[in-house]
Amino acid sequence: MVNAYTKSRIRKIVRRFDLIPLRSDSIASLYRKNAIVRVRTESGTYAMKPFFRSNLLHTGTIDQIKTAADYIQHLMNNGFNSMPKWLASNSGKLWTLNQGRPFYVTTWINGRSMDNQEDFEKLGRALASLHTTSSRSFPLKGPFYDHIRLWQNHDRLFRRRMAKANQTNKWTRRWYKRFGESCNQFSDRSWTELMSPELVDLFVKEMIRPALIHCDITSLNVIIADDGQLFIIDWDRIKLGSIYVDLATALMNTTRFNPVLIHSLLNGYEELRPLDRTERKMISSLYRLPREAWFTARFPKSPRSRIMLDIMEQTWPLRLKAMDLLDEWVNQ
């Protein structure tokens, strides 16, 4: 993958978007050495990105990029401005095919990561705008992505792995012994709440009239541009799904369990889309689920699994306080 994109290949792809490259360089992500190609042209700087299918969906790569592009076009048509602009290729589509791989091109955003309350309020407003923009002009075609069922499967696998902890390495056995049962208790409480009639009814209503969700709001996927505008990047996993899942995972992935930042994100969200008590309870229940621990059960030999368990151990007291904070928020 180091030399995956030659200059001639990059030029061939971006010319389909009416761009003439002057210089290009590959940018790595946590998972790929050539995640994005930054392309400098006379008209500005752009991001050329390969599209990879999600293994969690039972559809092919082309079907997935077609669906994602339709959703992106819908957001652009309805004035959602917290994402980089996707360029249309000379075929009129928001993507092109090269050597069997879909690629798309967006404007490049220069900026910084989030670091203060105002930034997190902006993220809250951006998420609320995403969820309301996509749900206003229904219908949108596509399946509803059921995170709840997926997470229940991950939880069951985690419990099975815990029960066979003597077959794992010494370090993992120690972690399971110290934190595993607490993770199960958090999950039990959340599943009980999520199965309550009021939350089941709320989830059913979402399935009938779903919204678009980003599915991967992390600190690395949020940029504060040089002019102060917030942009969310990396929209490959955009889906029809639960806005409460999207908000709960954004809280977990960006705020570092900081009470001030948690409140800032939620306050920004509720400026545009106020939440009632039932909705708040849904978010609090989803936030409590120990998804990082479940990841390690799915990929026990991955180096990332050890890192995630280390982070969980280091942040454990902060996590407990954040859970309590959200419980208080539900009852305000």
From TrEMBL:
Aminoglycoside phosphotransferase domain location: 34-273
Database matches in InterPro entries: Aminoglycoside_PTrfase, CotS-like, Kinase-like_dom_sf
Gene3D superfamilies, per database record: 3.90.1200.10, Phosphorylase Kinase, domain 1
SUPFAM superfamilies per record: Protein kinase-like (PK-like)
A GO term from the CC aspect: endospore-forming forespore
Pfam families: APH
Domain of life: Bacteria
Protein name: Phosphotransferase
Organism annotation: Paenibacillus foliorum
Organism classification: Bacteria, Bacillati, Bacillota, Bacilli, Bacillales
